[in-house]
Predict the structure.
Amino acid sequence: MSALVIVESPAKAKTIEGYLGKGYKVLASYGHVRDLPSKEKAVEPDNDFAMHYKVSDAASEKTLKGIMQALKEADTLYLATDLDREGEAISWHVWEEIKRRDPKKAAALHVHRIEFTEITKSALQHAIANPRSLALNLINAQQARRALDYLVGFTLSPVLWRKVKGGLSAGRVQSVALRLIAEREDAIEAFQPEEYWTIHGNFTTPNGKPLPSNLAVYNGGKVEKFSFVNESQAASAKTTLTPLKYTVAALEKADKRRYPAPPFITSTLQQEAARKLGFAARRTMQTAQRLYEAGHITYMRTDSVNLANEAVANLRGLIGKKYGPDYVPAQPNTYKSRAKNAQEAHEAIRPTSPDNLPGKIHLEDDQARLYNLIWQRTVASQMTAARLEQTTITIAADAGKQTFRATGSVIIFPGFLSVYQEGKDDNAGDDDENILPQVSEGDVLATRSIDTEQHFTQPPPRFTEATLVKALEEYGIGRPSTYASIISTLQDRGYVKLEAKRFFPEDVGRIVAKFLTQHFEKYVDYNFTASMEDDLDAIARGEHDWKPTLRAFWGPFKALTEEKTESVKRSDVTTESTGETCPQCNTHELVWRLGKYGRFKACSGYPECKYIEKTEGAGPAAGEDTGIPCPVCGPKLGGTLLKRTSRMGKVFYGCSKYPDCSYAVWDEPVQQPCGKCNWPIIGKKVSKKYGEWHRCPQPDCDWNDNQEAADATAAFRARFTKAKDAKAAAKAKAKPAKATATKAPATKAAAKPKAAAAKKAPAKKAPAKKPAVKKPTKSK
């Protein structure tokens, strides 16, 4: 071996090593090998923003030792991590550790940074033939972002602990995204619906075909949305319109073209996967990562809609062969990126080879579905436009003073629609694609009915995964590569919940958003956050220096944080006026307060008056139903596993039949039998270093599909338990001699159905630390 190649993941390493062959060894860094430790002074603003990195953990130390060992036989080092800022920083951290550990070897090495947008043999050969140096501008931009996030989180989170609730956190970007969701909820609650009516004419053509239409002109005036605002007005119009004789006054036909959407970028892939596949942004990115690492698609973190010339030529050849020459445009379709800082040298997300048709390569279910979506969108982007004939029929009476209009369209040539049609959000209108019957000008129509229909204006819809990503992109909040982590962070921290594919802010999330908006308005302002992202992009382009950017941010932010810590009272943040008088003391006002399970109404005269208004369903939230049968009681009681939150704020999954069945696990359940003990479910784990992996939740079964991840988890648990036991022993030793030993709480055994017992499935124990579940309150 003479060359060592460093990439992020073992899957990527395996694919690349297969292409490069002899003379190359490929190792994975498993993401960042160094990071800022979670303690004070990891970033020192008073010392010119010195950043003190530390090897992330024992697993990273093991990875670095493996790299140093492999370098003993190498004279060349290729840093082949991803081509974004994070990838550049990962390469830099690896190289810095190599120099620190063996300066002599580092000085003798030929070090190259290589980049590629697809993992194919030709792309890798081109990258190795065209290496570059580490890009200091990209590294500085990543360091600036990391320092900003650290300083905001480490400074602002303690303010939330004091003013709202312990254990909360604030983030530079997540707080702005939370504001979006909370303000949307405020707008929905404040919305006052307005009534309006529409009038529809249902006619019959001379050949007996139905012709539905909408009123367009009434008494010579154009009909607007609020032309009829109550039933009386609509009924009066109906009385006027019903007895009239109607004819076809005009028949207009026009050719219309519909053009394909550009190939996917990160944000549009997340949006479309949410609309069409029901994927969360995190699930989309994890699946796309695997497709990329296996060499099936190009790099999935991109904001460029460009396609390489070679890729376009291959697509045009495939389209002509598979669909015919009429589907190939005279000139290739080109698109312009909407993102002002788009990296135009990069490519859009596409299959590495369009000849790899969906269904012809072996993929797991999620990968197959996402690959099919990417393949269809990419192919469609280079196809001809669809041609439609749009028809408008004007139906008139009373010399044109009363007019109905019917609109429809027919596809004459499908073009790209034969492969792909873009999904729509909730508020997207239809395209009037109903097919209209044949009529001619002057035809006399029979009136079947004139109908009125009541409507009310609707509040703005709650965000879905797709519309939230779209809003983040439009506001310039974060970058496409961070959208998935922004959304998952808000959910993991209990600030928002996803129900029926809609985001609802939790009570604590609304209070945090309100507090930050009132007291840190500048720092959760949409334009300010977008401006900070622009500054980071400018650093990456070499236009700004990173430390002056940090200084400009830190001084005012630190001063404001110190001022708010002293001036804001906790009671002003966690209580809210209701305008109602306490029914018990008839003196004080009822106020909303923040409690363990959310907001509740109580008397502001506490402790003199202890009145608390009872609310239906008080107590811990019922939890989000996963639909997965409980492996203990499911066959007998029909229990399913619910996603719940313990009193310490940690997510766990417990049986819906609690307390009759107390089965609970920490890992996210997957409805797939264990490959070793055949337990009905396995647990899913996700980490930055190892990605997604699985293990059996049974304590006496050691099955997993990633032994390295399992070993690292077990080692961490052992260290944690050892430290906890040592702390408990020290505490017990410090207690007076008369203190009595406390007995460990007994774990309630899960009741097992006879059917399960017959199969001799291993008995399920509670998680290592049993999540606290309060007995559900009966609701009316």
The chain has five domains: 3-134, 143-191+461-571, 195-259+387-456, 266-384, 624-732+746-758. The chain is about 35% helix and 20% strand. The domain at 3-134 is CATH 3.40.50.140 (Rossmann fold). The longest strand covers residues 246-258.
